[in-house]
Structures are given as C-alpha cells and as structure tokens.
C-alpha cells in the first residue's frame, strides 16, 4: 500500500473511520478503543495505520493474533473475538486537538456501545484520554475496578510511536496481561 500524500493527509482531517466489530450476536472478547484516528488512518481508512504505531505488533506479540496483521487486514479482528472503536471518531493530526467535551461525549458513546455489544473487556489505549473521558484523574495503566455493564475495563498505554516512554516490549507485555485475563 502506498503512503498517502501530504494533500491526502490534510484532506483526511475530520473523517470518520467505521468501527471494526463482529456481526450482530458475534463473540467479542475485547473491544479496543483508541483515542481517535490520526490523519494517516483517516487517509487509509484503517485503524492504527501510521507506520510506527505499535498497536498491530503489540497485538501479535501478546498472542491476541497468530501472526502480525497489517492494518489493511483489520476486518479479520472479529474472527479473533476482537473489535476496534475510538473515543472520538474525528480524525486529527494530534490527539491534543480534541476537546475535553469531545472526549467526555465519546466516553458516553463508548459506554452505550459496550452495553449493546457486551464484550468481556473494554481496553482503552491511552490513559490521559481515559482520565478525561470518564472523569477518573488518578487512573493508571492496567485493570480497573470499574465495569461498564458486564465488561471489565483495562487501560492500555497509547501505542502511538510518539509515546516514547512505552517501548514496544512494554506495550506488548501489557497487552499480554490483558489477553491472559480475557482468556481466564
């Protein structure tokens, strides 16, 4: 797949990428929620698509998938009992372009989606966005005490390549902890 041009990236601003979800009634072990799609994802129509994003490698290294999936293969996730959504659907160049109100509204929408889909786990990738969206300023990475309906909540580190404090091995280890809990 060729890389989007600068003009294509700019044209992707404010686009919405559809969620990747199982068909109605399908099993959903873990619903992953990103913060919002970046311009690269908006231009390609694929979640976590920017080269350097560690979501797909972490998913594989943690054992959620049996091979490294390319973002273009995102529609295979439901066959693994996995799905992807975002707190905010609007594509931006940076997550800090989102307002606190957008994140809180996204949190309400995410809670409704979880109630409808009934995943075993909701995994939010991005602790700062989670804190804002759900009014939980002290949240740390890992399993949370709260639930959304029947879903347990796990906060993951943001897999963006810009998150230098979390190298891929540490991100994959946290994904692995989640996978092991979801399989227990």
TrEMBL record:
Keyword Hydrolase: yes
GO molecular function: pyrimidine-specific mismatch base pair DNA N-glycosylase activity; uracil DNA N-glycosylase activity
GO BP of this protein: base-excision repair, AP site formation
Domain Uracil-DNA glycosylase-like: 22-176
Alphabetically ordered keywords of this record: DNA damage, DNA repair, Glycosidase, Hydrolase
The keyword Secreted is annotated on this UniProt entry: no
EC number: 3.2.2.28
InterPro entries xrefs: MUG/TDG (IPR015637), Uracil-DNA_glycosylase-like (IPR005122), Uracil-DNA_glycosylase-like_sf (IPR036895)
Organism superkingdom: Bacteria
EC category name: hydrolase
NCBIfam families associated with the record: PRK10201.1 (NF007570)
PANTHER family given in the database record: G/T AND G/U MISMATCH-SPECIFIC DNA GLYCOSYLASE (PTHR12159), G_T MISMATCH-SPECIFIC THYMINE DNA GLYCOSYLASE (PTHR12159:SF9)
Protein name stated in the entry: G/U mismatch-specific DNA glycosylase
Species of the source: Actinomadura chibensis
